[in-house]
Specification:
Layout: E1 2-4, E2 9-12, E3 19-21, H1 25-35, H2 42-59, H3 71-85, H4 91-104, E4 111-113, H5 117-126, E5 130-135, H6 141-147, E6 156-159, H7 160-163, H8 170-180, E7 187-191, H9 194-203, E8 207-211, H10 219-224, E9 230-231, H11 237-245, E10 248-250
Parallel strand pairs: 2-5, 2-7, 5-6, 7-8, 8-9
Antiparallel strand pairs: 1-10, 3-4
Helix pairs in contact: 1-2, 1-4, 2-3, 3-4
Family: Belongs to the HAD-like hydrolase superfamily.
Protein name: Haloacid dehalogenase-like hydrolase domain-containing protein 3
InterPro entries: HAD-like_hydrolase_domain, HAD-like_sf, HAD-SF_hydro_IA, HAD-SF_hydro_IA_REG-2-like, HAD-SF_hydro_IA_REG-2-like_cap, HAD_sf
Amino acid sequence: MAHRLQIRLLTWDVKDTLLRLRHPVGEEYATKARAHGLEVEAATLGHAFRQAYRTQSHSFPNYGLSQGLTSRRWWLDVVLHTFHLAGVRDAQTVAPIAERLYEDFCKPCTWQVLEGAEATLRGCRERGLRLAVVSNFDHRLEDILRGLGLREHFDFVLTSEAAGWPKPDPRIFHEALRLARVDPAGAAHIGDSYHCDYKGALAVGMHSFLVVGPEPLDPAVKGSVPQECLLPSLSHLLPALDCLEGSPLEL
């Protein structure tokens, strides 16, 4: 006997799915440095940040919480390492810049809501769907979402800092399902990372949608994600849900 699938819960990634930075990281760092009398090229800082972030994430996963760090200390160290790689060796000079950057990155003015995000979230709510955030972010995310007027759309916000595990660890998805009291088959996740979002959610039995940008998709990724699960924009989500829920579920 065939039954129609019914999705009850949508979990959402945030950065580069619903929000993005207004300016590239290198520009933000260069602007704050200039305000403290320090001139460093934005491109140099942008490159250094990517290297510092990768190193920090590898050495101290999920903000180093299991190694005694706080997310705040983790980010301050990323900034210090970034400027060090960019040629600024004096930590005392960089320390106030790091503090300012940490504070500014939780302000709504640093972020912008992606096109179609609010309308899509509202449309999902109007359908009676429950919405939640599952994000590899720290505790500042609540304030960012509230300041941008998006927090009201979500039943709860689950960050990797609060959960103790980052995506794609199955435990963060299981925790979201537990909080929502929804089975994996009744939930879908939306995000822009093939590894952390798309595959992470599928691994626990959830449905999954991958948000893709205008740039060409990696052929290996494209070949492993069904066309109906690729979202060129958030406005494609509701039709994709219609397609998913129209598929018969064999019992």
